[in-house]
Amino acid sequence: KRGNLFFLTLTGAGEHRLNPNLISSLRSALFRLQSDPSASSSSALITTAHGKFFSNGYDLDWAQSSEPRLRLMSSSLCSLVHDLICLPMPTIAAVTGHASAAGMMLALSHDYVVMRRDRGFLYMSEMDIGLVIPNWFMALLRSKIGEPRARREAVMRAAKLTADDGVRIGVVDSAHDGAEATVAAATELGEALIARKWDGHVYAGNRRVVLREVLEAVGCDETVKDVAAEARSKL
To answer: What is the dihedral of CA 198, 113, 131, 23, to 10 degrees?
Structure first.
């Protein structure tokens, strides 16, 4: 924490695969953040990660193609995305490594994305690994990527988007050279947002209106049976 700027960091050099344990830790951190007395005034959150990966997506090895485990993993991420959308402050993802599939969804669940240009991709890998994209993933992508051709490139061609590609299609707000510069840019943006002295609850209320379709979609946990059937042959 730095003043009213909060940092949520996925630590370690691993892939930061999203399983219920990691997601629960992230949700607990957001709950503690909201319990901080200073969070009642103008604040902002920066989420970043150590190592080569921001997040390499769902932990399919943990799921082992089990439908109950896949359902738990998916519903847990839905809950985390809901928490971020309802968080009473601006949120910034400082993407300093690869963000794949569900990891890309985690990044896009923030209000702003700043990204390292010299390493890392935004990558919807489902076509390449033979999985069906969940409906709520597409709802979030539609809210963040306005141009249909850009969504087609991201989803149907599984394009590996660099930071500069992301800026070009409007899904990344700025690109920077190196991890330190990326986090520094996120910090500068966060401080500028804090300086606006917005009411956090009003901010969250407006975000819920803007992302209403996403909130409705994360309330449904669909395509898990399809994912389980396909994942069985991939693991």
So the answer is: -60
98-123 as b/e: b if 16+ CB within 10 A:
bbbbbbbbbbbbbbbbbbbbeebbbb
pLDDT at 125 over 50: yes
Q: How far apart are CA 150 and CA 147, in angstroms?
A: 5
Q: What is the pTM of this model?
A: 0.91
Closest-CA residue to 144 (of 119, 173, 120): 173
Helices (H) and strands (E) in the chain, counts: 12, 9
CB 186 within 8 A of CB 114: yes
Helix (H) or strand (E) holding 91: strand 91-95
Distance (Å, whole) CA 148 – CA 52: 30
Model pLDDT for residues 12-35, shown as the tens digit of each residue: 989 999 999 999 999 999 999 988
Strands 91-95 and 112-116: parallel
Q: How many CB atoms lie within 10 A of CB 1?
A: 11
